[in-house]
Every structure is written in structure tokens, then in C-alpha cells.
Design brief:
This protein is about 35% helix and about 20% strand. It is built from seven helices and seven strands.
């Protein structure tokens, strides 16, 4: 039986690229350091023989930041277009997509999502840390009407895709307060 695919959506780690709310709270250089460390730790942690790991980087060129991973560009378009493209490309098997903002993500949580097949992991900020889809649902996944980076992202995504099993809620690190919250639990 073919292994499912775990797609990690990330940005190339560079000062001033992404994590703008975190940078406002702790400074651009420190936000870059946190993002780079958090992403690298998560990418190593998510390597698992139960699935294929694919890193999709924002921008048009694969990045050398994580040279041992299969890396592909996300391509053009808003987040919904890029997610649809990535998910549909891998739709011959079950697909899960995650970002790099939820450091409490674990292989066990990913495996649980693949077992449920069509599932979403809520984030405390109103978004989601994981979306898992069966091949049938992945082939037609579109994100029309989703208000990204808002308190409505989770519910808009469920509305766009249809019913999904709910997983454990995790904290996305988007600002200084959420960073402190995650660090306090370690």
C-alpha cells in the first residue's frame, strides 16, 4: 500500500520574511531565529517512515535551508490556490498539510490524522495546524471564500471542504504571547 504524503508549507527562513506579528513583539532578527529553529526542529521531528515528507517553500525556487528534504516551490497565487495545487498534486494517496507554526505537532498526532483520513486540527487563533484529506477529497480540494490569517479560517475551511473530523487544538506561534505560551509548556 502506498504511503500517504505529509506536505509542510513553509517560507524560506530570511530576516524580514514572514512572522511579522512576532517580529513586532520580539524584533526581526529574533523572529527569524525563532522561525528558523522552530521550522528546522519540526522538519526533523516529522521525518517518519509511515509517510512521504514534502516541503513546499513559498517563492519560486527551492531553498538550500533544508537540503536533505524533497523541496518544491509553492508556486503563485493566494494561500488557497497554493494549498489546492499542492494537495491535488499528491491526491493519489491520503494527504495532510501542515505549516511550521505549531511546535507541539508530533508524529503521533500526524499518524492520528491520517487514520481519520478527513480531519482538521484547530489552532487556538481560529486557524488550523493540520488538514488531512482522503484521496477522493484531496482531488477536489478548493478553498473558495476562506478568510486566511483570521479568526474565521477554520470555520471557512470546513465550509469550503465539507465535514471534517476535529483533532486536538494546538497553539500556532504567531506573536510574542503565543511564543511565551508554548515556551511555558516546555
Amino acid at each position: 500500500m502506498p504511503r500517504p504524503t505529509l506536505i509542510v508549507f513553509a517560507r524560506s527562513p530570511a530576516i524580514g520574511v514572514g512572522k511579522t506579528r512576532l517580529a513586532r513583539d520580539i524584533g526581526a532578527v529574533q523572529a527569524w531565529r525563532v522561525y528558523r529553529a522552530m521550522s528546522t526542529r519540526l522538519l526533523w521531528k516529522l521525518r517518519d517512515p509511515r509517510w512521504r515528507l514534502v516541503l513546499r517553500l513559498e517563492g519560486e525556487r527551492p531553498d538550500a535551508a533544508w537540503p536533505r528534504l524533497r523541496t518544491e516551490p509553492q508556486g503563485r497565487g493566494d494561500l488557497g490556490v497554493r494549498l489546492s495545487r499542492a494537495i491535488q498534486t499528491e491526491a493519489r494517496v491520503s494527504v495532510a498539510v501542515v505549516g511550521t507554526d505549531a511546535p507541539e505537532m508530533t508524529p503521533a498526532r500526524i499518524a492520528n490524522a491520517f487514520r481519520k483520513r478527513d480531519a482538521i486540527g484547530p489552532a487556538t487563533d481560529g486557524g488550523f495546524w493540520l488538514l488531512a484529506l482522503s484521496p477522493r477529497r484531496a482531488r477536489t480540494a478548493t478553498f473558495d471564500g476562506v478568510r486566511w490569517s483570521s479568526a474565521h479560517t477554520l470555520e471557512d475551511t470546513v465550509r469550503a471542504l465539507g465535514p471534517l473530523a476535529r483533532l486536538e487544538t494546538l497553539t500556532d506561534v504567531d506573536d510574542g504571547a503565543s511564543l511565551q505560551e508554548v515556551l511555558s509548556r516546555r
